[in-house]
Design brief:
Blueprint (H helix, E strand, L loop, with lengths): L8 H20 L8 H20 L3 H18 L7 H23 L5 H16 L26 E6 L12 H9 L4 E8 L2 E6 L5 H8 L8 E6 L4 H5 L58 H4 L3 H4 L19 H5 L6 H25 L8 H24 L1 E3 L1 H4 L2 H12 L3 E6 L4 E3 H22 L3 H6 L6 E10 L2 E8 L6 H11 L9 H5 L23 H10 L3 E7 L3 E9 L4 E9 L2 E6 L3 E5 L6 E4 L3 E6 L2 E7 H4 L13 E7 L2 E7 L1 E9 L3 H4 L6 E6 L5 E5 L1 H13 L1
Parallel strand pairs: 6-8, 13-22, 17-19
Antiparallel strand pairs: 1-3, 1-4, 2-3, 5-7, 8-9, 9-11, 10-11, 12-13, 12-20, 14-18, 15-16, 16-17, 18-19, 21-22
Helix pairs in contact: 1-2, 1-4, 2-3, 3-4, 3-5, 4-5, 12-13, 15-16, 16-20
Amino acid sequence: MSVDLSQFHQVFIDEAYEHLATMENLLLAVDLDDPDLDDLNAIFRAAHSIKGGAGTFGFTDIAELTHALETLLDRLRKQELHPTDEMIEAFLQASDLLGAMLDAHQQGTETDAERIASIKGELTRLATDEASSYPDSPAAPPADSQQPASSGGSSWLIELHPRENVFAKGASHEAITEDLAALGPVDNLQPPEEGKASWRLHAEVAQEQLSEIFAWVCQPDEVTFTYEEGATAEAEEDDPGYGFFDDEPAGGEESEDEGFGFFVDQSELPAAQDQKEDDQGYGFFVDEKELPAKPAAAEKQPENQRSAKPETPNKAKPAPAKPQSKAAADASIRVGVEKVDQLINLVGELVITRSMLAQSASVLDPIEYENIHNGLANLERNSRDLQEAVMSIRMLPINFVFGRFPRVVRDLTKKMHKQVKLKLVGEDTELDKGLIEKLSDPLTHLVRNSIDHGIESPEERRAAGKPEEGTITLSASHQGGSILVEIHDDGAGLSREKLLAKAEEKGVPVSENPTDKEVWQLIFAAGFSTAKEVTDVSGRGVGMDVVSRNISEMKGQIEIDSVAGQGTRIGLRLPLTLAILDGMSLRVGEEVFILPLTRILESMQPDKSQLKTVSGRGRVVHIRGEYLPLVPLYKLFSLKPRFTDPEQGILVVVETVDGKLALFVDELIAQDQVVIKSLETHYRKVDGVSGATIMGDGRVALIIDIERLAKMNSAELAG
């Protein structure tokens, strides 16, 4: 089935304008005497992003011009050429032309073909002009030449294995191959088939460069990079980490222990004094001869328990290394995540069975059947302890995410010429492994935005009477049955006036006198941005609307507080796990629903004076000075209720991203800890429902998706 890509053209055009703004600013800041490679790489990435999008969406004229632009930029960032005034002028003219070409595509007009050919020819000439080469730099290859694949030396095996067919959705196998060929000779090992493909790249490049090529094609876990043997000693020093770490210590610096307390310090080993300080093992491995002698019993240990790392394939390059201590090895084993998930599922079934037994025993006389009731009480306590113990296996310190940000902040502040100090608080707070993996991307985007758009330049801070060095605080803490992750900066804060003006420009609906909380939520509207320009830091096409969607998928909430001139706080409130939920069971008619306990503010039985009808908002209830929308669940789920009059039923006040709602139900039953089951896996998707659970009487209870419920109510009022 073909996909109509024209619906995404405007998104590409908007992002391309942002990349052009980034390019222009960085070009004007290039120091011709001492060019900053970070800036040159940023300019290259901006051009590369435009070329990739243009090729995907069929804008071949833009793709061809940016290819010529990229060729010259590639030689500059590889220090094969020295930048000149002539090059900067050509870049700026090409940037202006690309802007005109984007305008033309948007308006359906033509661009001057002679101007395109002239600037393209100038870029090609400059890329092959050896007059500006560095001494002893290699000559540029002819344009569009194909280099033969090398049979020796180091190489990367790249395997694309997406969950969906990315080529059917617009990704171009030819464009990916061309991008890889720009890094070195490349072999196509597997042609594109249902989204899968593989290549071998004969080049010693950083994994970051490869990840960048596939960033717009698939998710990070859908492509595998394997560094194959044949690397020189120099290449080993640039070891990309084999997917264990995003960053590596700078050359020449002493590497800090990244063992997170699991591994011994290298200095404790007998051969530590002779080992090089720039060892890139990250504390995981070491030559066996450097370890303390193992007792004979250890030698007889089963193979699946003895090895901390599986054998590498024949051609896979093993990671160099530091050791794991014997005590740590004896105290831990490696277990597949699928086995832990299976154990959690079985414990969940045990909890459900216990609930069924308790339900059946509830009709028995507690005096006559005292032993049964006592046994069930013990079973309940033990099963809950077992459940918590099993769940703790999947819990990891959030420092697995936080640990990457000191390097991120250092690199970004250097690129952006800002002074920023990062504070980490609550790094030991534990969160479910699945949530930690999903939290990484939105948290990275928020931190980048805090640096890029939140913290002012040293000059602006000085003029505002602030210290030149800004502060970003990243914290995590447990609050009840949830975890709160906060990003706080002491920057300029959000501007209410700018947000409202942008909302009016974009046609985003806003109430007549919106509160600050409603105004701050505007930044989550799709395509909403008040930034005049976007840098390579936050201009990768991931907007705040995507962050909001990711957090919603994690059953979380986003809170924003901001004071102009003082800073912004963004809080992410998440459940501790996606497997178990503390909820309130409630009844509507004959059906039982589960409401997440962390979203409930209060419950009450209203009187007649509190109930009103407001034009355009339907029925509302007046609670503590606020008029909250009254949402009858029986109408949204087409049920026959016991009560249709709110005065006879119960109102449950819940909190959503857009404000508070009062849910009208028949009665509250009890507070329960339930095991979440996927409804889509066993049945189908049901609007307004995020999952299901099995109650003690064996019946299925649906878990309410509060955010979706709020949208359903808004749609019903609008319709």
